Amino acid sequence: MLAGVVAGASVALFVLYGPDRLQAEGVPVEGMRPPDPFGALLLVLACAPLAVRRRWPLAALCAGLVPETLLNAMGYGTGVSSLSGMVLLYSVASYRGLAISLVALVLTLIAFVTGAAGGPAGVASWNEYVVVAVVMVAVWGAGRSLRLRRAYLEELRDRAARLERAHAADTRAARAEERSRIARELHDVVAHHVSVMTVQAAAARRVLAADPDLAREALSAIEHTGRLAMAEMRNIVGVLRTDSRPGARAELGPQPGMRDLPALVEQMREAGLATRLRVEGEPVSLPAGVDLAAYRLVQEGLTNSLRHAGAGAKAVVTVRHEPHELDVRVEDDGRGTAPGPQPTPQSTPQPAGHGWADGWGAAREPALPPGHGLLGIRERVALYGGILNIGPLPGGGFEVRARFPLKDGQ
């Protein structure tokens, strides 16, 4: 459409403003040729490349410069065909790189100078030629500015896409980390409460006929433990639930911590494991992560003592508060050190898949799928820069001990 409009306007002006009319209006026309079909054809050929300026800008410019140069050199009136040359130069500068656009500018200036030098004298002054050359350079600069702006916007879009992909990757990593955290929490909750319920159920079965009242107490303890387990699991996974109703909130509760150790010890006593809690040093306010990790370590250690230490076993939980360290230890005197070769205490991670047998001795089998409890404790302790030791004691029994570093007493 643009090529047709420019070509039509150029031919109309070429025909209407011939040498006779220009001379009547006082315009010098020395050496200017009158309109003829050949001149009109050159005008059309100079404007036609506008139709393909976006697909082949440099080729269109070269194709338009040839008839434009012939028009100037032969002394024809050019109408507005010079406008097509400006548009083609602008297209090359805005759609091609710097090197090609510079070539296009140089070719345009050369063609213009050639046509002006070879054309008839008196048609235009040199001042007008200089102005036209300056306009050409300005048009080229406008095209380059548009290309640079396009490149800048494209870079912004690409950067936004990269940031979006990075955000998506971070979201996936956060979700995976959260799933791992929830898996550790659920493992600790299920392993502990189910172990307690199993021991209490076995005790109730043994005394059901002989002492129904004692069996009833054991069943009540099982019910209470089950309710505790359900409540704690509901608190853990409640954040994953969504509700579209306005004002609806997930049922969240505080995570357990060192303040809950007395209740945990009392629960283990009711389950049949003689447990004693010792606290040394002045208790301080602990970071939430360390508080939960220490509690889970004690819970996991007592759970395994309950399952594997044997009847009549005793367990001692020792919590030592030091200025820059929290020392947590769970010891039992059970049958974990049965005769035979025993592994030495472990303080470094072992390959996954060995479960509690890695640090609890050959006589103890993992209560849940191998490796999850031990690896969960190692991950918790390592997350806060602590040191973990798990293994048999020289005089019999087993020990789980972790030392958490504290900064500035916390």
TrEMBL record:
Q: Name one GO molecular function term.
A: kinase activity
EC number(s) for this protein?
2.7.13.3
Indicate the segments forming the Histidine kinase/HSP90-like ATPase domain, all copies. 292-407
Chemical reaction(s) catalysed? ATP + protein L-histidine = ADP + protein N-phospho-L-histidine
Question: Which keywords does the record carry?
Answer: ATP-binding, Kinase, Membrane, Nucleotide-binding, Phosphoprotein, Transferase, Transmembrane, Transmembrane helix, Two-component regulatory system
Quote the Gene3D superfamilies the UniProt record gives.
1.20.5.1930, Histidine kinase-like ATPase, C-terminal domain
Q: Which Pfam families match?
A: DUF7134 (PF23539), HATPase_c (PF02518), HisKA_3 (PF07730)
Kindly provide the name given to this protein in its UniProt entry: histidine kinase
| Biased composition, class Low complexity, residue ranges | 349-363
Q: Cite the residue spans of the region called Disordered.
A: 328-365
Instruction: Please give the InterPro entries that the UniProt record associates with this protein.
Output: DUF7134 (IPR055558), HATPase_C_sf (IPR036890), HATPase_dom (IPR003594), Sensor_HK_TwoCompSys (IPR050482), Sig_transdc_His_kin_sub3_dim/P (IPR011712)
In this chain the DUF7134 domain maps to 34-150
Which positions fall inside the Signal transduction histidine kinase subgroup 3 dimerisation and phosphoacceptor domain?
178-243
Q: Which residues cross the membrane?
A: 73-91, 98-117, 123-143
